[in-house]
Amino acid sequence: MIQEKSTDAVRVNARKTDVFDVFGFKHYMGANPYLDAGALVFNFALTESNQPLPIEDYVSVIGDRYPQIKEQTYDSHADLFAHTVAEVGKLDMGLHLNRWSVKAYPNYKKISVQSLHERTTRSVLYFVWDWFEAITQKEDVAFEEQMRMLQNRFRQSVYGGPTVYTLLRTAYEKGIPTYYLWEEGLMQYGYGKKQVRGVATTFDCDAHLDSDFTTRKDDCKAFLNTLGFPVPQGDIVTTEREALGVAREIGYPVAVKPVVGHKGIGVTADVQDSRELESAYERSLKAIPENEPTRIIIEKSISGADFRLLCVNGRFVAATERRPASVVGDGYSTIGELIREENRKPARLDTPTSPMSKIQSDEAMELYLDEQRLSLDSVIEKGRTVYLRKVANLSAGGVSIDATRTVHDDNIILAQDIAQHFRLTCLGIDVITKSLDKSWKDGNFAILEINAAPGILMHLNPAVGESVDVPSHILETFFESGTDARIPILTFNKITVSELQETIDHILLQHPEWTVGAVCQNAVFVNRSKKILNKDYNSNVLSLLRNPKLDLLIAEYDEETWENEGMFYQGSNMVVLDNPTETEMILARDVFDGSTVVIKKGDSVSIRRKGLIEDYNLGTDEPFTRVYLKEIGTIL
């Protein structure tokens, strides 16, 4: 058990009326002495000047919101507090934060709750504290309002984007080590030479030329046409006059969209006449980035539904129909009121994992309503569906419908033929047709555009239909299992520079082609080359694991580093403990099945491997290095 100095139960952060006090915060990015995962660790105490209610009273209120709270019994208010922070910390979004622990000290409890984003977890903690105090005072809290604030805080973090988070959660479930590279703005999956880095669904193995090519919609369209794939007739224009000329030539209805763009911004479909074209042209013009020239596509508008075909590693994996936002009349509510009511639905929580975004009211919506001789103040008859946009933009409130199992084989082959022309891990192909269960060869089928770095939430969590586990398809492109994402790691509680060099030499003797990274309190090495030592210890470890040539890592974690910074990585293939403290002994828990643990206490040595324990004493003048160097060979 970790020893800590006891403190008197005095107010630290508690207000005068509070019965609980929370203080002594510490955030760890990885495994630490209190929890084998990234965690927020803090102290919890009773103020003693005011008495809390019985635990059952808190359970009764909290359990109404989180029924799972009622399924357990609690030895103390601290245990209930920890469980509540863990449940609220999932943010009603299914965040993969399931671990917590409570350790008792004379005058307080030390609570550890699994954490992904420190600022969000701290805010969750303070909210739960306020909730406990409100229950004590028999007051209510603005729970929904607070939850929205917490969700938004997480959404603004580097982990909060729906694609990033779903990949992160899937990696966690598969045992693939993942972390954020702050200076680069990238996620890294895997260690050393096993790593893959990327942003959302774009990865370092993708060809940036191919990715850029997909943004040049005119060239891409010409390329697809060369391959014999169905693309709508049209042209690129730079002025409104040219746009009107092209539309007259190919005939209305037409679609209008900027050459450089994404997420359907500035896109208008089914433009019926010159007046509509002028408005659509202006919207496309506004969507063009300032540093880009004015280039707008005018093309024949094909009738049908909007579909996204998704390919991963050149293979078709999912299809989704995207319908524009709509409301259904009740005979007495205005369209504006129906939108507000629709936006209150739980499916439209507008969180990173909700199946639908809230319906956005803007000029494009009002113009489309005007074309239908409607406005936000119009009352529509009961049962009538009114579409609010021409474009099925999901970020503006559109509806996603899974269509994966309905796709005709010819359409799957078409998607894969397109994807295999690009060195991109993920490719989204937007098409328009009446139904995907009919072959594209039958006509009335057009490829609208292709997208590098496509979003995946529409497939993973559609508003209607079954989920397709796209994150697994993506990560399995790189790693068949979590083991495939890791390099061997040797962890020591203490090792000198000379012992570190001897260990490196021993490994290179067996594997001369390897690149070995090693760090202790006094030095950093890549093979025998000494590197700059950062005062932030875990930064040294990160830099080594970031090295795409690294075959093996050796790292020292003594008591001070372990207590103050925690351990950057999780999972050791071998742990070597030389007369360890109680805190350092916890390092032995961070091993895989089949890993080796070598412990020296005085002259006694214990070796644990695959459920077997071997004990013996060191011989006279026998160095400890001889023991663990021999054992290293068993894990390489």
Task: Give a verbal description of the structure.
This is Cyanophycin synthetase. Keywords: ATP-binding, Nucleotide-binding. Pfam families: ATP-grasp_5 (PF13549). InterPro entries: ATP-grasp. It is a single chain. This protein is an alpha+beta fold. The protein folds into five domains: 20-156, no CATH class; 162-203, no CATH class; 233-300, Dna Ligase, domain 1 (2-Layer Sandwich), CATH 3.30.1490; 305-360 and 370-477, ATP-grasp fold, B domain (D-amino Acid Aminotransferase, Chain A, domain 1); 489-633, no CATH class. Helix 3 runs antiparallel to helix 4 and helix 5 crosses helix 14.
Task: Please give a handful of descriptors for the protein shown.
636 residues, Dna Ligase, domain 1, 5 domains, 5-stranded antiparallel beta sheet, 28 strands, 31% helix, nucleotide-binding, ATP-grasp, ribosomal S6-glutamic acid ligase activity
Mean pLDDT, all residues: 92
Detail the poorly predicted runs: 1-8
CATH architecture of the largest domain: 2-Layer Sandwich
The biggest beta sheet is recorded as: 9 strands, mixed
Strand content: 15-25%
Please report the total strand number as a whole number. Answer: 28
Structural class: alpha+beta
Count the helices. How many? 19
Q: Which CATH top level class of the largest domain fits?
A: Alpha Beta
Question: What shape does the CA trace take?
Answer: globular
Helix content: 25-40%
CATH topology of the largest domain: D-amino Acid Aminotransferase, Chain A, domain 1
CATH superfamily of the largest domain: ATP-grasp fold, B domain
- Number of domains in the coordinates? 5
Strand order of the largest sheet: 23-22-21-24-20-25-26-27-28
From the N-terminal CA to the C-terminal CA, the straight-line distance is 33 Å
Q: Report the C-alpha radius of gyration, rounded.
A: 30 Å
GO cellular component, one term: cytoplasm
InterPro entries: ATP-grasp
Domain ATP-grasp: 221-479
GO biological process, one term: SOS response
